[in-house]
Amino acid sequence: MHFLKSGWKFSINVAIDLTGSNGDPSTTTSLHYFTKDKKQMNQYESAIWAVGSVIEQYDSDKKFPVIGFGAITPDKQKT
Predict the structure, then answer these.
(1) What CA–CA distances, in Å, run from 38 to 32, 33, 35, 41, 69?
(2) Which of 8, 36, 59, 69 has the fewest CB within 10 Å, making it most exposed?
């Protein structure tokens, strides 16, 4: 609270590791796994939601830049 009173501004920036080290996204053990009905968040979504829902209250512009790295796009280019 002291930070807010002294004029500090908070924002959230998110980086998502899309490398194969997180496992095949079609398997339940992957950090990127989506349930078939998409009603349950994966581990990345849960972590982003937990932190983001708190920081959001103090973020002045309510914009949350997100970058992903380590992916291979459908046209076989690396990010």
Answers:
(1) 12, 10, 5, 7, 23
(2) 36
SS3 category, 75: coil
Residue in the block written with tokens 């920081």: 55
| Nearest-5° Cα angle at 21, 40 to 72 | 90
* Cβ-count burial 60-71 (b if 16+ within 10 Å, e if not): eeeeeeeeeeee
Tens digit of each residue's pLDDT (9 = 90 or more) over 5-17: 787 777 888 888 8
* Residue range 34-78, pLDDT digits in tens: 777 777 888 888 888 998 888 888 888 888 898 988 887 778 766
